[in-house]
Amino acid sequence: xxxxxxxxxxxxxxxxxxxxxxxxxxxxxxxxxxxxxxxxxxxxxxxxxxxxxxxxxxxxxxxxxxxxxxxxxxxxxxxxxxxxxxxxxxxxxxxxxxxxxxxxxxxxxxxxxxxxxxxxxxxxxxxxxxxxxxxxxxxxxxxxxxxxxxxxxxxxxxxxxxxxxxxxxxxxxxxxxxxxxxxxxxxxxxxxxxxxxxxxxxxxxxxxxxxxxxxxxxxxxxxxxxxxxxxxxxxxxxxxxxxxxxxxxxxxxxxxxxxxxxxxxxxxxxxxxxxxxxxxxxxxxxx
Length: 287
Prior knowledge:
GO molecular function: disulfide oxidoreductase activity
Number of strands: 5
Domain Thioredoxin: 3-128
Protein name: Thioredoxin-related transmembrane protein 1
Pfam families: Thioredoxin
Keywords: Disulfide bond, Electron transport, Endoplasmic reticulum, Membrane, Phosphoprotein, Redox-active center, Signal, Transmembrane, Transmembrane helix, Transport
Distance between the termini: 198 Å
């Protein structure tokens, strides 16, 4: 009986030790609903994809880092970007694997060697203080990155729908592209209409003052048109009168010039005759 009791106690101790070891090695899986947990406390978060060879190589190292989570007073998590496309856009993941250090809502990207000792010393020696945090416009909790996350989620749904249309439903690829092209155009038109409505609601046009509101009738409009025509006719008449006056002035100047030439011609012969008579008189007196 004593031997059996000792054996049961030994088995219980081994079971408790293994369960604690499993809990200690556990890496926290994060998704779209739980990623905001990293905004509190200190975290190390890895972004990976199952098909990535480099991600497969760092997987055992990441589990060993998780073993030190209690000693370093941090939490270790990971995000599968193949399932969480929205988080891939929110954190602007351009390479795999990508590691972020998060402390009280400040995000820093870890760019050091991907070994167990280097990662642990990065936390233990507080080397992250030498790294500039992510700027405000790239902060995962900002509005612009939230919009980018929505775009990535929509693109993922479009890809899933495209694969379903071509693989399961048997539609040709070109028809799927045409469908999504038309859907994009319609969505753009609806979005533009929505923006116009919002702009009109937020900034409505100002009505004219009450005293300046004019109610024009058809007869008033016809009178105004006639007045405009009269004004145009009066301007044309003025232009014509001005041209006629110019012509008269030019003609008057030409007639004056002709009269002066004629007078000169008439006066010239008389002066010559008087000169000849005077010369004859002088010759007679001399004789």
